[in-house]
Specification:
Layout lengths: L1 H18 L31 E7 L3 E3 L4 E10 L4 E4 L4 E4 L6 E4 L4 E5 L6 E5 L12 E4 L10 E2 L16 E2 L9 E9 L14 E4 L6 E8 L6 E4 L2 E10 L6 E4 L3 E11 L12 E3 L16 E11 L4 H6 L7 E3 L4 E5 L2 E3 L5 E3 L7 H4 L2 E4 L2 E3 L5 E3 L6 H7 L7 E3 L3 H4 E3 L7 E4 L22
Parallel strand pairs: 1-3, 2-4, 3-5, 3-6, 4-7, 5-8, 6-9, 7-12, 8-12, 9-13, 12-14, 13-15, 14-16, 15-17, 16-18, 17-19, 18-20, 19-21, 20-22, 20-23, 21-24, 22-25, 23-26, 24-27, 26-28
Antiparallel strand pairs: 10-11, 29-30
Keywords: Signal
């Protein structure tokens, strides 16, 4: 009986190990990146367009999978209309006319793709590049912390005066519904605009809580992959791949939850200045916001931020690798069970943030896995981070620290067709102490 009991215990232990999941970083019993994502979008070819979308779509319209559509110029969905897109539909953004698609306030997009049949927004060029076309913009009537309502008119070239009303966002309805984006890929967006700014892959301006944003991949965006201004929205299973700018940027009083999402940066593509995996701010200029309104608050769980360097130490020395996370003054971030791997350093706090208990309680890092970063959490332009390391290195935060290369850290990092960026089971050989010796601040790849 004792032998049987021991064998049963060993069997259960083995089965439990096989079926176990790593709790940090992106999670899932299966690799949820399968089928719908594409990590080599420049090698995909699509049919020539059979239909043109241009001007205003002011009545309910449905796009069919059997057609290939081309966005020509700035296309607006207006007049409370709903644009429905069938799974598997391909929409090409025209390079010559700097095309974009905007869902104006009060209108909706229903782009409800399938895992096996995602909806594709991509460039119409034969050789595709970042910034070939504009991107996708959703404008809602949820709150922002700006004075009055905002407008995204500055993004558009040659906009007619009558079209300015279609670019407004903001209101009081936290539950506003701009529609559904699910199993959607947005590729080669983020065109440059005349004021030296860029479109984003996906911009959500004052989008409300009834809007569904899940399983979205933005690849090779010249602007930010995902940017959120105000509103109150939940984001789930987002992928940002090789963005030139920020992967996830939150601003203007957004109250956002982001879960189970991934950002993969390349030092050979991404901007080496002011471009991060995650940037959380409440404003660009203090003069533009009403401080009686809510500051930006982001609750993040099970994120993976990964820097894809062939030689991390060399890339850091060349200035190609910066911080993964940047938190601005008067913003709140609560990030939990997430992985930050291969950055310089992991986190930077804006220099105007006073390091005291009141402020640090607004910026939480709990159950984190900091891997192969040259330093962990710093204040901007200050190399002395002893107070921050002592705070976040406290055992009550359950943060761990390690030095492993990407192939050792992730399940199937090098698989070009079906990569798996979940953390390897039982491969964390780490310390719960947040303080590295000075000689440990060098990195190995």
């Amino acid at each position: 009986m004792k032998i049987f009991t021991k064998l049963a215990f060993i069997y259960l232990l083995v089965i439990g190990h096989v079926n176990a999941q790593q709790e940090k970083g992106i999670i899932g019993s299966n690799n949820w990146l399968y089928n719908w994502t594409e990590f080599k979008p420049n090698q995909k070819q699509y049919d020539e367009p059979t239909q043109i979308l241009t001007g205003n779509i002011d009545k309910d319209t449905k796009l069919s999978k059997r057609e290939t559509y081309m966005l020509l110029g700035n296309v607006f969905v207006t007049n409370n209309a709903t644009l429905t897109i069938e799974p598997g539909t391909v929409i090409l953004g025209d390079y010559a006319s700097k095309a974009s698609l905007t869902i104006s306030k009060g209108s909706k997009i229903i782009a409800d793709g399938l895992e096996t049949d995602p909806i594709i927004f991509t460039s119409n060029r034969g050789v595709k590049r970042s910034g070939d076309w504009g991107g996708l913009i959703l404008l809602g009537d949820a709150p922002t912390n700006k004075f009055g309502n905002g407008s995204v008119a500055s993004f558009y070239d040659d906009l007619q005066q009558t079209a300015y009303t279609n670019t407004n966002y903001g209101g009081t309805n936290v539950e506003s519904n701009s529609g559904i984006l699910k199993f959607v890929r947005i590729e080669f967006a983020g065109k440059r605009v005349k004021n030296d700014d860029y479109f984003n892959g996906l911009l959500l301006a004052c989008v409300g809580s009834k809007t569904i944003i899940e399983n979205i991949m933005v690849s090779y965006s010249a602007g930010n992959s995902f940017e959120v201004w105000g509103g109150e929205v939940c984001l789930n299973k987002l992928v940002s791949f090789r963005s030139n700018s920020n992967d996830f940027k939150f601003n203007y009083g957004t109250q956002c939850k982001i879960d189970n999402s991934l950002a993969i940066r390349s030092p050979y593509i991404s901007s080496s200045s002011a471009a991060r995996c995650l940037q959380v701010a409440s404003y660009n200029n203090k003069q533009e916001v009403d401080f009686s309104k809510k500051v930006t608050k982001v609750e993040a769980k099970n994120l993976t931020f990964l820097n894809d360097s062939e030689n991390l130490k060399s890339d850091i020395e060349k200035g190609l690798v910066k911080e993964a996370v940047y938190v601005g003054q008067n913003a709140k971030l609560d990030i939990n069970k997430s992985v930050i791997s291969g950055f310089n350093p992991a986190v930077v706090l804006q220099s105007s943030i006073a390091i005291n208990q009141e402020n640090l309680e607004k910026i939480k890092f709990v159950n984190m896995y900091f891997n192969n970063c040259k330093g962990n959490i710093f204040v901007e332009n200050d190399s002395n981070n002893e107070d921050l390391e002592n705070w976040y290195g406290n055992t009550s935060f359950f943060n761990v620290y390690s030095k492993s290369n990407n192939a050792e850290t992730f399940i199937d990092f090098s698989n070009e067709k079906r990569p798996d960026f979940r953390l390897r089971i039982n491969k964390i050989i780490a310390s719960k102490s947040g303080v590295y010796a000075k000689e440990d601040l060098g990195v190995n790849n």
